[in-house]
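Researcher: Re-running this chain for the archive, since the previous output was lost when a drive failed. Same request as before.
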Amino acid sequence: MTTAKFTDSLPEPIAVLESFLERAGTTIVQAAFRYSFFIDPERVRQRTPYFGDRARKSREHYPKGDRGDMRQWKGVDVRLGDNGRAQMAWEKYTGRPIARGSGYGVRHIWGNPWDPFAFTAGWNLCYMPFWLGMITEKQHPHDQLQRAIQQASYDLYFRDEPVCQRPDYVIDPALDLRELLGEQPILILDNEEARTGTDRLTHRRDEVVMPLNAQDRILAIRKAANASWSNIVKGIAALDARSHEPFGTVNVANSSKSVVRRMLKETGLSLPQLEAAVAELASRHE
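Model: Regenerated structure tokens:
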């Protein structure tokens, strides 16, 4: 074993991480989104926050308040705790248990965990590795990554069809995620049941037994994904590298292409065959 004395200034850990990622052909933002997971906006729309009478203890906002204590937030009684209720909310939203000891954790995208409206709200939760989570918080912030995660939340939950009334501190970071991520999708954590025997498509709480007919399968997939015909048509064109009308958001683009890929897989049709079938079905079901 050899040793050496180091007398220079200590390297900045985040800058070192970025340099290694760049040498590997990626960026810290792309690496973050490859291993970070968000909640299905429809699940958030159904219920947010999940536990509206809970908040995380805070010396600033709840002086001398400890776990289990009752306090008031803007005239509403809340019970204080640690991150346990936020983790429970994540499990309820996604149907996935927290992977203890895995290196993943639930992070608050917009902070404000002392606010019961934000503490267990799906629009404020992201599941990411510890090594990423620490650089999205104020102790060791990476500004571009923090803003990119917030941009994904804004686009998913507030841009087109808000899942709830938007808090004042949730503002559009004005980042172009398409420029930062390219074709890399924003990942929505799901709990689709494994397919065994009968071919099934599971979406949210609805289970659809997949029919044998290709057109009926297309209809079933579209219904389960709640996708519009126009976005499916644009998704087909995008996968075929043809020009098309713009999508509303990056997430809509990614989800539309995902729906098209599923249709291709489930029906066995080629892209031109699927396009013809979609055109016929759209004309009949619009």
